[in-house]
Amino acid sequence: MSSWRDPTASVARDAPGHFRLRLMCLGDLADVMRVERAAYPFPWTEGIFRDCLRVGYVCKLLEGETGAVGHGIMSIAAGECHILNLCVHPDYQRRGLGRRMLSHLLDMARARSARSALLEVRCSNQAAFALYDQLGFNQIAVRKDYYPGHGGRREDALVLAREL
User: Fold this and answer.
1) Which of the following is catalytic: 36, 57, 92, 132?
2) pLDDT, tens digit, for every residue of 93-142?
3) Of the four listed, 28, 101, 116, 133, which is most buried by Cβ atoms within 10 Å?
4) Does the predicted model carry a pTM greater than 0.70?
5) Domain 3-117, what architecture?
6) What is the chain written as a DSSP string?
7) Residue in 46, 63, 80, 120 annotated catalytic
8) What is the pLDDT of residues 76-95, one digit of tens each?
9) Does the annotation mark 92 as catalytic?
């Protein structure tokens, strides 16, 4: 088993296969968009990722032996973190990588004095909801018509939170 290495953190984590979590940069956006489009029917735009990098959000890229396989975006302010995007390429899902990436982001938030974490998840995304539930997130609200849907319809988001 190889290690999960993040050059910006002092702790290595075990992970299946050889994966590395590092800071994202502008030069990574083509790979980020490839993963984002493979994973989501309504992906973020490259401009959104550019803005996240520009304003200094925590932007992490998960790399495997063949290149980018996932990413995570988080804001931290006023004692809380907000997980804005957590994405793993479909070919690499169900290997614990999303869980490990989210745990890493939450560890970073704690280190920066965040006391709580928030995120939104599509009501239809049962796999993601199960992961968040297992990691101690609880539903605190519903955002009506938050996400775009097929045929011009909108989908509600569950707002989840947990203490850090």
Assistant:
1) 132
2) 999 999 999 999 999 999 999 999 999 999 999 999 999 999 999 999 99
3) 101
4) yes
5) 3-Layer(aba) Sandwich (3.40)
6) --EEB-TTSS--EE-SSS-EEEE--GGGHHHHHHHHHHH-SSPPPHHHHHHHHHHT-EEEEEEETTEEEEEEEEEEETTEEEEEEEEE-GGGTTSSHHHHHHHHHHHHHHHTT--EEEEEEETT-HHHHHHHHHTT-EEEEEEEEEEE-GGG-EEEEEEEEEE-
7) 120
8) 999 999 999 999 999 999 99
9) no
